[in-house]
# Entry
Amino acid sequence: MTLVRPYGDTTGDGMVQVSFTLPLPHSKTSEGAALQLAQKMGMEPALVAHAKPMGPEFTFFVVYGRVSHLVDVGAVRVVERDYPLLTPKEANLAIRKALRRRLVVVGGCIGTDAHTVGIDAILNVKGWAGEKGLEYYRELKVVNLGAQVSVPELVESARAEKADAVLVSQVVTQRDAHLHNTREMAAAFREAFPPRRRPLLVVGGPRFDEAGAEALGVDRVFGRGTTPGEVASYLVARVVARHTPTRPTTQTPSTEASR
Ligand code: B12
# Structure
């Protein structure tokens, strides 16, 4: 059963609800315009469930209707977690064993973005969703630069702190600001550090596509609902791997081996 349909009243009835704003005053005409849009989006039949004026020139709509599309679950591609989830104790132990020093994390919101709640949820000791933030981990040194950090400031701070990882939050997405800022940040770090010395670059925010890391030039993207434990576990997995020397394979002469 990899094909599914949305449902509202009875299984498989195809009912969905969408909301949007039109730049029209609230009137019968604007409600008709909302229905026209819904029909063009493939909702047939559709009805306006809610319409509310947003000032004199705009109207917010909620439209309920039927779509005929099927979802093929088998064709869905997502980024699965490819590292083990660690407790703070396990994470601390792994860092101490591999690095013999604290793992340094520098974080902040770049550009004009002042939405610090997300990055604080990950970094601050009080944490998020019942998990302690990275400041709680004894073997993590956290430098939280806060809001509206410029890219040169971030690079400078990462250099001064000898950061192993840089954590950037982007919540505002107007005109794709989150994507432009992230690309600019990634390019600046690539210019400022030789490849082996560059800190791990991690971005997060509610509207990022977690599959977009490579296109943005970062090592990992975290989206909506991320917890501090996931981020700590990811950092430990990647930074520890970087610092664990790969043992050269000892070549045994075949004559020796055959004896
Ligand atoms: C609180 C808030 C504010 C506060 C911010 C206070 C603060 N110190 O952060 C104030 C009032 C200042 C504010 C201002 C503005 N805001 Co505001 N704000 C919000 C609001 C209501 C909640 C955001 C929030 O705190 N979420 C809770 C946190 C915990 O969730 P999160 O950020 O998603 O973080 C989680 C994950 O995404 C992830 N994550 C996030 N960052 C990172 C980073 C890393 C490294 C990792 C690993 C993970 C990670 O982990 C977190 C925990 O799970 C949202 C609407 C909403 N409901 O989301 C609007 C919203 C973000 N704001 C918005 C706007 C437009 C603005 C203003 C431009 C409004 C204005 N005209 O002035 C200004 C911009 C100010 C600026 N210069 O940035 C819009 C953005 C729209 C868009 N498309 O970009 C939103 C979506 C509201 C809306 N629907 O219009 N805002």
In short: The chain is about 30% helix and 20% strand.
